[in-house]
């Protein structure tokens, strides 16, 4: 009977050890996956911007916006990131956000014709036709042909 008791205690001890080892293995797997996922996340503003561009090209505008938000957060004055975010906001119908982003781009570089054109589109959607006309006119002056067309449509030019 003593041998049976010892044998049973030995089996129970092995079962406990196996459970502990199993859970330790599970924790290690979760940690390894976490490290792997962390290494795949963008770390710089440019990496976030690149990820956003890829998502936008795939039509995943909500996800792209999150990436551009992060890029702008890491480098607030970068016109490229603001332009990309503004373009995605245009697709999503966030016209106030479009105006905000492209106004910052224009402030950084007043010779960016596309920024005037895109801001003009947003102004049009917001019913701010005078502001839109001014932006389309400026875009046209900066060589954006679509700005000329839009200015004609708004009756600025014959």
Give the ordered list of helices and strands: HHHHHHHH
CATH topology of the largest domain: Serine Threonine Protein Phosphatase 5, Tetratricopeptide repeat
Query: Any low-confidence stretches, pLDDT <50, length ≥5?
Result: none
Backbone shape = rod-shaped
Provide the β-strand percentage band: under 5%
3D architecture notes:
The protein is mostly helical. It has two domains: 1-40; 45-153, Serine Threonine Protein Phosphatase 5, Tetratricopeptide repeat. The protein contains eight helices and no strands. The mean pLDDT is 87.
Short description:
The protein is mostly helical and 158 residues long. It is built from 8 helices and no strands. Helix 3 runs antiparallel to helix 4 and helix 4 packs parallel to helix 6.
What are the SSEs and their pairings?
Layout: H1 2-40, H2 45-57, H3 61-74, H4 79-92, H5 95-108, H6 113-125, H7 129-141, H8 145-153
Helix pairs in contact: 2-3, 3-4, 4-5, 4-6, 5-6, 6-7, 7-8
Features:
single chain, 158 residues, mainly alpha, Serine Threonine Protein Phosphatase 5, Tetratricopeptide repeat, 2 domains, 82% helix
